[in-house]
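Example record for the data management plan.
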Amino acid sequence: MDEMLKNYMPQMLIKRESLTQEIYAKLTLFNFISLLVSNIDVITTEKAEYKYKPSFSNAIDIGRLFILQRIIPSDVVKMLVHNKTPVRPGRKNKRNISSQRLRTLQHRS
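Corresponding structural encoding:
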């Protein structure tokens, strides 16, 4: 029994370290994207019906491309300003929140 535990424990330790590293990587990416989005001001015209803010879901893809050095910093700002979503104050309709399927931490989209 002890021999089996000796063989099994290193694999378990590696998996735990990998899982911990993956969680910290996700948190670091989220904080980085939040910092990017919070510092971008989207200029709107006076004819615009709503105020706008950068789209967070598009910002995640843009941030990943920046980290992988596939786009340059000046393009990051342009892309974040271009991909915007309206801020609608005083919404009357409730949002339809549905459950989403769980994704593994190894999922890279």
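Summary line stored alongside the record: Residues 2-87 form one domain.
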